[in-house]
Amino acid sequence: MIFIESTSTNPAFNLALEEYVFDYMPKDQEYFMLWQNENTIVVGKHQNTVEEINAAYVKERGIQVVRRLSGGGAVYHDLGNINFTFVVDADNIEQLNLQAFCQPVVKTLERLGVEAEQSGRNDITIDGKKFSGNSQYIKGKRIMHHGTLMFDSDLSVVAGALKVTGDKIQSKGFKSIRSRVTNIRPHIPADVDLERFKQVLREYMVQGEMTQYTLTKEDIEEVKKIQRERYDTWEWNYGASPEFQIQKSRRIEGCGKIDISMNVENGVITDYDSRGDYFGEGATPELKEKLIGCRLEEGALQEALKGFGLGACYSNLSLDDYIEVLCM
After folding, report:
1. Whole-number Å distance between alpha carbons of 68 and 12
2. I need a surface site. Which of 49, 136, 253, 323 has the fewest CB within 10 A?
3. CATH number of 244-327
4. Which keywords has UniProt assigned to this entry (predicted)?
5. Which pLDDT does position 147 carry in this prediction?
């Protein structure tokens, strides 16, 4: 098996690296990867990004949001978390399950004196608390299995970043299963730091011989090309969300209460209406014309509404406050 450790903490690069290893590295080899991301929410392929993140919290903390190739729920990454990936052949995909890849984690932790167990369809827990979520991407007879290992993550940020705000969102996408979480480090009897833990993972996660591979300049250029074309794009990270309906309600000083209803498909507003006790004409045909077909994203809305007389629709409502209502 070939071992690859990413030296980057950029989530878009690392997800592109997974895709590169899966699609472009020699298929007669199997791969094991370790990698870390700076503060990031990684959403599943079939999820509605808007539903999975606390947008105001994410913006305030500068947390990146990236969509992965595999299904499953949204997870939070920081530098206290380690991600592992297996890219292997599978002769019988139908009989291959997530547990087969979770078992090495359980066995590795046993060597550190930690009693862990597989739980549900894709979690690994300690004392009933989740520290690892796992998912898979399958194409042809090849499988990419990846998982998180929260070793020493900031659990307060985990909760805040993935906490959905009070807006009522009805989505056709899959909702994440939220559960209590824990870090691995407090459960290890000896004082083991993150670098030592990574070393243990390298030693015990794979049975048999491993050969380390260092990415070439050409490899990195190809990975960055994938990153630019997919993982850096709004269209992939937000626009690939399923159709959903969203209702937002805000009371804004000087303006009044605004209740907004929107339909959104592929991240683009397809219908819009509003009610409330505000002064003004509300959802005029002119406002709808500006909004429908526009991406539900701050920059796109700023551009679409530039120079528009919003005061005729909602008296005493600034453009910045209005866009915040729509996006947050």
Report:
1. 9
2. 253
3. 3.30.390.50
4. ATP-binding, Ligase, Nucleotide-binding
5. 93
